[in-house]
Model the fold of this input.
Amino acid sequence: MAGEYDVVIIGGGPGGYVAAIRASQLGLKTAVIEKGKVGGTCLHAGCIPSKALLRSAEVYANTKKGEEFGVIAPQVELDFSKVQSRKEDITDRLFNGIQHLLKKGRIDVYEGKGSITESKEVLVEMKDGEQVTLNTRNTLIATGSRPRTLPGLEADSQYVMTSDEALQMETLPDSIIIVGGGVIGIEWASMLVDFGVKVTVIEFAERILPTEDKDVSKEMQRLMKKKGVKIVTSAKVLPETLEKGQGVTITAEHKGKEKVFAADKLLVSVGRLPNTRGIGLEKVNITAESMFIQTNTNYQTSAPGIYAIGDVIGGLQLAHVASHEGIIAIEHMAGKEPAPLDPVLVPKCIYSSPEAASVGLTEDEAKEKGYAVKTGKFPFRAIGKALVYGETDGFVKLVVDEASDRLLGAHMVGPHVTDMITELGLAQVLKATTMNISHTIHPHPTLAEAIGEAALAADGQEVHA
Done:
């Protein structure tokens, strides 16, 4: 026996390690089991490394058009090995920071694979082959997810990739086909086209970013095409037609016809699957519906003392959601009464160039819920700071309840909108009205002025358009 714990957390990603820190703050003796590195997919194979690459791509693309700013750089070159090195330096620095926080909280970290053997017992298979049994009052499952593939389109490390393999590319291909036009697919499309890669996106739905507001999808499709990305929607990829050799070819059904696409590589970006296998769910009679663990609003599973959070329970598969869920679960274990997470209040971000961000209901969702809706929309091209940046595409759109003037949702495309969405997230939490938002003084010149103008636009009172 290695020890007695108040909580053992299986998985050290943004859900698991944040939960562990909160547990430590509340005086709970805590252990984290992580088979890879603490920080999880988000830090080592997702959020952080992909955003590091996106930033390098953005700098490269902006440098090539520096003459617009009076900056002449006639021979702009890309050293992709240094791009990758910078990415690794960033993840290593954050990894060291998380290790420090766990050590500071006196949280025991077991490097190995954890599985539940009994309701109050977790087995750790250490990397050196040793097996350690942990007794615990509570267990928190935070094992995350992995990229989903399609039968016949499994990653082969040479021609077909998921985001995991793409992050480790040593050289850039000349061309690539991206299967899937969701958030991850569009981020990769934006990044790679900025690096100079010829990009084709094939999306099954009628529009890219199908879960976003329709105006956001339409604008992002226009802007991706403007950057040079070829986008094909309402297209069904036929995996059985995949051919590999000097690159790849694949056929898709589009508008009643079959069309062949060719590129150097193919990236599959069709969602993520929960890591629920091999963690002992069957030992405690926890069933996973469509592979996702079912929980209540405090993230309790059907087994007493066992909780689950993050990508393994489905819903919004976002790092900040997993962290918040982890805090709620730990506080419930500690006897507190945490407020439940409301998905409508969760900001969602797309880190393409330009960015997109949203919170709350889309216009269509609001109408489906029976609201009489009015919208306020304001373009960045009328904002001085956007002109200064040289990034004038996009807009801020607010979805408003006509009866109460309360904000129902906010949707943005444009420069730095992922850093601006929190203001509208707070407005959602506070049940703010368009008057509250428009009466908030937005300093000039800032990009955030577009938010105040959009609030005024809901009643036709915008000033600068």
